[in-house]
Write a structure and sequence with these properties.
Shape: globular
Number of strands: 11
Strand content: over 45%
Order of helices and strands: EEEEEEEEEEE
Distance between the termini: 37 Å
Structural class: mainly beta
Number of helices: 0
Largest sheet: 7 strands, mixed
Length: 123
Amino acid sequence: VQLVESGGGSVQAGGSLTLSCVASTSVFSINAMGWFRPAPGKERDLVAAISYGGGSTYYADSVKGRFTISRDNAKNTLYLQMNDLKPEDTAMYYCAMREATGWASLPYEYDYWGQGTRVTVSS
């Protein structure tokens, strides 16, 4: 399984970016997905997650109301729409796939990882 992220870049505070993650496997449609980024004291922190069908989602408190996670199972693609970006959102963002239908909170609960895409937000 390969996960390839794209869509990162440099924006000013208040701007928007949409990250994409394309999976190389058709089992994408039956697996939960998540977006992670490094956090102080942690290797990676869950930013947002989505169940296999999109019916259940999770957002970290720091991004609620600003980020939207979605998926297109026909295209094996995961998205993260990021609005009203803040300098503290600056990070490498990783998508991850869990071999289960429901999402989970911890990195070790995910089985496959992409290489990451960098987001830089300037003030």
